[in-house]
Design a protein that fits this description.
There is one protein chain. This protein is mainly α. It has a single domain, classed as Orthogonal Bundle (Cytochrome Bc1 Complex, Chain D, domain 2), CATH 1.10.760. The chain has 7 helices and 2 strands; from the N terminus they run ααααββααα. Strands 1-2 form a two-stranded antiparallel sheet. A hairpin with a 2-residue loop joins strand 1 and strand 2. Helix 2 packs across helix 5 and helix 5 packs across helix 6. The termini are far apart. The structure holds heme C.
Length: about 150
């Protein structure tokens, strides 16, 4: 009986080790966690959530914009924003408790790489997410960062 328990525990350890090595799937994470609001293809919906496609790529090209993108996924955001003349006043939820650094990096890489065709994503790593997480912040502060962005808040 005791031996069986050990065999079971061994199998369990082997399984979780394998699971830990599977890279996070950004496309699947987008469908599971973002698509309900940002819509398939991240095209957005007035009154619900802004588009990410044709929008957030402009922030991925400078340091302040990159910092904003990491923070908005971690802290969420409150307050009105304007995207291409359309005003959105919604509540972007925080994903700090729901998604790991690796998962957040993967889902942001998916949106920026697949939808926005941003070529340089070398800065978007789990380590950078961990650093942004460590730095802290709040939905309000993230809204303020957006207001100061070089590419327009
Ligand atoms: C419950 C609905 C909801 C979900 C789920 C959601 N978002 Fe958002 N998101 C919003 C809203 C609303 C805003 C605009 C917030 C505001 O008006 O301050 C936003 C804003 C953003 C922005 C900033 C856009 C800009 O123009 O600055 C990014 C980036 C973003 N979301 C990414 C994501 C990602 C990635 C996910 C999934 C991990 C996600 N969102 C899930 C509602 C949502």
């Amino acid at each position: 009986m005791v031996r069986r328990v050990f065999v079971f525990l061994g199998l369990l350890a082997a399984c979780s080790a394998t699971l830990a090595q599977v890279p996070a799937d950004g496309a699947a994470l987008f469908v599971a966690h973002c698509q309900a609001c940002h819509q398939p293809g991240a095209v957005g919906a007035p009154g619900i959530a802004p588009p990410l496609v044709g929008n957030i790529g402009r922030h991925a090209v400078n340091e302040e914009g990159r910092r904003y993108l990491l923070h908005v996924a971690l802290t969420g955001m409150v307050g009105s924003i304007t995207v291409d003349g359309v005003r959105y006043t919604g509540n972007m939820p925080s994903f700090a408790a729901t998604l790991s650094d690796a998962e957040l990096a993967a889902v942001l890489r998916h949106v920026l790489g697949s939808y926005e065709k941003v070529a340089d994503l070398a800065w978007l790593t789990p380590e950078q997410l961990a650093a942004a997480r460590q730095a802290g912040g709040s939905p309000n502060e993230t809204h303020k960062i957006r207001g100061r962005l070089p590419a327009g808040g």
